Each structure stands twice: as structure tokens, then as C-alpha cells.
Amino acid sequence: MRTRLQPSDEKPSLVPPIVAGLLSLIVPGSGHMLARKFSKGLILLLVFASAAGLWIWRVTLAARREIGFVAMFKKAIQLQPIILMILILLIILYLLIALDAYKTAAKSKPNPFLLWLFALAAFFILGWQIGEIKPAVLIRDGKNSLPLLMRVLWPWEKALYYPEELLIGKADVLIPCTDVQLEPIKVEEGAPFVTVTPSCGDLSEIGGEEGTKLHAVGGNFAPNDETEIWWVDQVRNEFRYRYGGEYIKVTTDDKGSFELDVVIPYRVIPTTGGKGYVIWQLEARQVASIGEPVLSDEFKLSVEKMVETIFLGMMSTFFGVILSIPVSFIASRNLMSANWLTRTIYMVVRTILNIVRSIESLVWAVIAIIAVGLGPFAGILALTIHSIAALGKLYSEAIESIDHGPVEAIQATGANWLQTVWYAVIPQIIPPFVSFTIYRWDINVRMSTVIGMVGGGGIGYLLIQWIRLLDYRSAGIAIWFIAITVAILDYVSSEIRNRFA
Contact at 8 Å (CB) between 21 and 11? Predict the structure, then answer.
């Protein structure tokens, strides 16, 4: 028959329960500490102090122009009523901490559920307010982002480029009509042309009569395609022809011809000089597609920079592996615990690895750019530095988790440290080393897309530029290449890990 093991008797509280509760009303958590629950009391003190400090910060931030905390508090509640809700939760939490301290000192097995529930609720509402979460805005304005999102999700219209040719037909118009005879514009055989009847007239007046109506006839354009009408004044200023508030365009017939009536528009600038007349031009412009579609420059740039990104991640992983392997052996506790000197080296190396690893690759990229300038070399340096620290930690932990039986057997034969590592350690660490290396390459490829945004090379540089230019289709092409590449690398890395598992 099993017998339940009884826990050892806990030491009694240093103060009576009522004193523990009152002390927690003065300093939250102090009653728990005197009831011999020091860790719990310290955690509750930090939790309440953090929540209260964040609440005070939000009050002062919401009403920073007010003088005095009371005035700030009143104004903050008017501007952001949620601050009052947070205060109520903090008061309830404050009282629950005191009650929990009383029960802890009385050994009545307090139920901490409500205590931690209100603590989490206070932090959740603080996070909601600090994060300025506005679901209504998302629902109301989110639909405006759908067209942009569709450009990113399906950007392939920008992947192909259709060679185009600008077809222009011109006709001179004399303003106003004089005895001057205009020479006809020479047009090559088969080239687009435009003729106007009459070939002279008067400008429209602002708020007055319309100008002379001209009958324009064009030919030799691309059939069944839209053609825009433009005017070019005497100082070569170009402007599209508008009539009735709308831009005028015409569609050519099956033979590439069109007919259209136009009115000479008005211009604010003087139209005549010493000659008493000026010459304008009426132009018909048509953009026609020629030849077969070809890959666009954006597509080619994405492919080029994606290849650069892959090799950026590969080279940084290669250098990171080469340099982190020797570091990992001197960062392993089980291999460096022979004497005080090796233990000191171990502590120094682990500290350096932790410091380097705590600084993100993006920061290292900015530092590398300062040192070597913009480009992929800066990205390789940044990722290599971070890879050495990350892989050094992972490799050393793999070394620390090896089976010590083979190590002791090799050492029993009188082998030195290097022989022990070669024959007893390395055979055991090859599978995890391969797995960590492949995983790091995957990370470096994904990180190289990020550090490219600060000039570290790769496709990230193109991506951030296209986003800034609001060219979402080009950005979508880059994102698709990133996603496809990461998916392929994930599959390849999983296959390689399975072979070494």
C-alpha cells in the first residue's frame, strides 16, 4: 500500500497575519516576505510597482500640459477614460495582495487565481492603451488597404514588360489667322500624320467665347487603340487637351485613322509677339505595343538581388561556422573545467558570446556599413559576427550534452585534451552541428532581407526602396521571391537534417 509523503513543516511567519496584511498595504509584497515567502513577495512588489509606474507614466503623457498630478489625473480621465479603469484594477490588485499576505501568514492556503487574474488584466489594458490598439479603425479603414494588398499578393503584371512605341502625328495651327502661309510638316511615308481644317484660328477667352473649332483628321496610327490629343504652344509648353472638364481622347478605327472636332483652348501667357501671330501644334499621341512581352527590369533586379541574398547568407554562414567551431570548444563547460585558468577562459568567452548575440544583426549591419560602406560585404560582416555568437552558443551546448562515457574511456588511455576531443567528442557532435548549421543558413538568408533595408546588400534594399516609392507591385515581386526562396531552403534543410538524424 502506497503512503503519501508528507511535506516537511514550514517555518512559521515572522509576524502575525494582521501585521502581514497591514505591511502589504504599506509596501505591497512586504507581508509575504515576513511570512517567509520572500520570492513571492518580491515578485508581487515588482509586478505592482511596474503596473503603477506605467499607469503614472500614461497619466503624465496624456495631460503633460497640466500642472500638478491631480490636475493631470482629471484631464487624463477626460481624454482617456480607460485610465480610470486601470486605476480601479490597480486598487483591487493592491487590496488582493494585502489579503493574500494575511492568508499566507495565517497558513490558510490562499488562492492566487484572482490575484494574478487582476494583475494580468491590468497589464493587458495597459498594453492595449500603450499600443494604441483601435479595432474600429482597422475595420473602418482596413478596406482601403485591400487594393494595395492585392498588388502585393498578385504583382505579376509588373513582371512582364511590353515594348512600346510612342506614335505622334502633328499639325501646325496659326494663331490668329493672318496672310502668313504655313509650310506643311514633312511626314515620312507610312508615319502617323494629322491635318486640321482650317489651319488657323483664335484662342478661347477665359469666361468668354470659345475659340475656333478645328476639324482634325489623323491616319497611320495603330488600329483600334486610344489616342490622346495634346497642344504645344509657342514656347513649347505641352498640355493635354481638355473640353468640358474632361481630357479628350479618341479611338482609331480598323485602319488606324480618326476624325475629331477640337476647339482652340485658352492660355494665360501672351500669345503674340512682334510678328503679330504665333504657331501652335496639335498633336495626336498614341502608345502602341510592339513585339513580344519580355521580363521587366523589376523582375530581373529581383532575381539578381535574390541570388545576392542567398550567397550573402551562404558566405556569412560559412565564415560563421569556420570561426565558431573553435570558439564553441572553449565555451563548453565540460571541456573547460579542468582548472581555474580554463574555467576563467570559459566564463570570458561565454560572456562575450552573450553580449555579441544580444545585439541584433541589423545593428551590426549599421556598424559594418560605417566601417566598409554600403553593399553586400557589410551584410556579410554583420551576419558573420552574429552567426559566430549564435552558433558558438548552440555548438557549445551540443558539446555539453554529449555522452561522457566515451570521453572517460579515451581519457583512461592517457589521451591528452586534443585527442579526447578528436576521438570522443567530435563523432558525437556532427549530427547536431549539421542541423544547427543548416538552421543558421536559413536564418541568415531571412535576415539578409532585413539588413538589406539599411544598405547591407541583397533584395531587402530593393524592397524598402519600392515600398517608399509606393510601387507595391514591384515590392510584391520581391516578397514573392523571398517567400519562395525561404520555402525551398526550409525543404532542403529539413532533408539534410533527416539524413544526419
Answer: no
